[in-house]
Amino acid sequence: MIKTYLGPFVFTFFITVFVLLMQFIWKYVDEFVGKGLEWSVMAELFGYASINFIPMALPLAILLSSIMTFGNLGEHFELTALKASGISLYRIMYPLIMFVAFLSILALLFSNYVLPVANLKFYSLLFDVRSQRPEIMIKPGIFYNGIDDYSIRIKSRNPNNNMMYDVMIYDHTERRGNTSVLIADSGKMYLSPNKDFLLIELYNGKKYEEVMEDGGYLRRTYPHQYQTFEEQKVKIALSGFTFSRSDESLFKEHYRMLNIQQLLQTEDSLWQEHNKFIETYKASVCQSAFFKAQTIDSLTTDTTYITLNDVYSRFSKKDWEDIANLALIQARNQQSFIQITMEEDKSKRSWIARHQIEFHQKFTLAFACIIFFFIGAPLGAIIRKGGLGMPVVVSVLLFILYYVISLTGEKFAKELYWPAWKGIWFSSGILFPVGIWLTYKAMTDSTMMPLQNFVSFLYELIGRLKHKKYEHSGTAQ
């Protein structure tokens, strides 16, 4: 059984990783094109990206391979023969249950020890790639503003000798507008060996410049002056055009780069900071809004209490108006302070929730492998169809359902509507009973008319589509 299962599992796993990698490339293709990145950098980036896709690819591969394996056994009546020999479906599934349990343990270890390091490498490298500037590509007739403080325009270019004609360079390094410009009939442009400078050789041109002299409080502007030259070299410093790696320690504190122990320690520290924040807030509100450390003279020397009338008689109408205005100002200030504090408190609790979400997700990956096996294996035994047709359709639909439920629960947890554990385990709590129910139905050979009718409908729909495609191709011929 394990030998039969390994082939579809390995095949579907790498196909799923490849599809997810293509989606990643399609998403960030604009960040890669035109930057002159070496193939080794791109290979490293795609390698780390593939490792990051394993938590999504592994459960889907287990689901698809389980349906394919047991669907093939059912389609060729091997399951019927085994059951007729007195071997139960549980006994048939037992070796694969042990194998999937072993995979689940590996998935947990992978999430705790490998995935944080891969995330650190991946996100730091992706940041460097996205920060890399595109290569200098000056198109004729268009001002190129990709170099800081310079604007360059050429009229035409000779591709054979890389000679440029009608070159115009605006120098904005003085930050005074278009006060310095170089115009030449022709020129050449190339980068220094380390790509730190852009070297330009200009021929037969002029340099126009407006000269301003510092005259104290008054600045006197003189008419522009120009210089003619037969040959002139311009050296422009470049920044951001050479690929450089950032310090990975700058990203190490992010929750995606932490293992289980580090997440627990960080969460504990965050809760301590949050509690100090709440205590500081309570003390600030009490001191500024409710209690004032002020000393007042005694109204009388022979009374032990003060009535409201005694207090009212001490102040004039003008004083009471000033007191009311002061109280109104303090109330508005406190309202603004409370609103700002509430937003900051929500931000702190949301950051703590993200650490809690990452903590629980390391366990849900391992549990999802078990869930999808107990859904896929009995479902394949019920459907009794192998190959890549119906199993792929059913697997994708079930995985989309699981993914949508997972995103919904994670969204509720991030927005603090649900506790983190509830949002992350929400999808598992829904699909695990489904897997137990399907396993029970498959072991007892119970009828499942709604599911069988749905599968028959899918097969009929696929058959009609293939028939229409065949008729269309025949008509075209």
Written description of the protein model:
It is built from twelve helices and eight strands. With 477 residues, it is α+β, with helices and mostly antiparallel strands. Among the domains are: 224 residues, no CATH class; 88 residues, no CATH class. The strands form two sheets. Strands 1, 2, 3, 4, 5 and 8 form a six-stranded antiparallel beta sheet that branches. Strands 6-7 form a two-stranded antiparallel sheet. Strand 2 and strand 3 form a beta hairpin. Helix 1 runs antiparallel to helix 3. About 2% of the residues have low confidence.
Helices and strands in order, then pairings?
Elements: H1 2-32, H2 39-52, H3 54-75, H4 78-84, H5 89-131, E1 150-153, E2 156-158, E3 163-171, E4 180-191, E5 197-209, E6 212-215, E7 218-221, E8 225-237, H6 260-290, H7 308-313, H8 317-383, H9 390-414, H10 420-424, H11 426-444, H12 449-476
Antiparallel strand pairs: 1-3, 2-3, 3-4, 4-5, 5-8, 6-7
Beta-strand percentage?
5-15%
- Helix/sheet category: alpha+beta
**String of helices and strands:** HHHHHEEEEEEEEHHHHHHH
Radius of gyration: 36 Å
* Record field, number of beta strands: 8
| Average pLDDT figure | 81
Brief rundown of the structure:
This protein is 62% helix and 13% strand. The protein has helices at 2-32, 39-52, 54-75, 78-84, 89-131, 260-290, 308-313, 317-383, 390-414, 420-424, 426-444, 449-476; strands at residues 150-153, 156-158, 163-171, 180-191, 197-209, 212-215, 218-221, 225-237.
